[in-house]
User: Fold this.
Amino acid sequence: MRQVFLDTETTGLSPEAGDRVIEIGCIEMVNRRLTGRNRHYYLNPERSSSAQALEVHGLTDEFLADKPRFVEVVDEWMAWLEGAEVIIHNASFDTHFLDHELKRVGRGPFASHVNGVRDSLLMARELFPGKRNSLDALCARLGVDNSNRTLHGALLDAGLLAEVFIRMTRGQESLVIEQGASASSASGLAPSADFHLSGIPVLLVSPDDQEQAEHARVLEELDKASGGKTVWRELV
Assistant:
C-alpha cells in the first residue's frame, strides 16, 4: 500500500485570479512506514505572492526567481506519483490549484493521475466532531511535535500530516481480517470453530485451564462483593 502525503504553498487564494503554486512537498509511506523517498519542489510562479500569503510561507520573489517552472517538473513528478493514494489536509484547496496548474500544461485533473485522493480534514472532523481540526490543532491533540513550524512549508507540513495520519488511523490495520483469509493464517492461532460474520472470519480461542480458573476466581470475588446477587452462572 503506497501512500503520499502532499502539501502546497501558493501565491494567494484564487487560481482563477492568477495565483500559482510555488511549493510542493510530498512524503512517501509504504505499508505504514515512511520510506524517505520524498519529493520537494520550489517553483517560479512568474508572479508575486500577495502580502498575506508571504506572511504565511515567507517565500520571496527573489528566492523563487531562479527556481524551475511547474512545466519543467511536472513529468517527473507525475511519474513518481503514479499509483499512489494521496492524502491532503483540506484536499479541495490543493487539488483546485493543482488542477489549474495541470490544465495550463495540457493535462487532466490531478485526481486522474493518482490512485485516489483522501482528505485528512474530513477524516479528522469525523473523529473529532465539533473540535478544531487544523493541522496545528491535530498535532497538539495527537502529540505530534510541530515546534519547528514557525512558517508554513510544504515539505514540513506534509511530514507533520504523515505523523498525524498514522496516529489517527492507529490500529485500523488489525481490526478486520481480510475476507477469504483463514483465521489461523491471519493470527497464528488455531480457531476453536469456523465462524463467519458477514463474510468476515471471526477468531474464537478457547481458554486454557489456568485462564478458566482465573475467570472463576474473579466471579467468586464479584459474587461476594455483591452479596450473592450475581447471575453469571445462571446464564451459562
The longest strand covers residues 21-30. Strands lie at 2-10, 21-30, 33-34, 39-42, 85-88, 117-119, 195-197, 200-202.
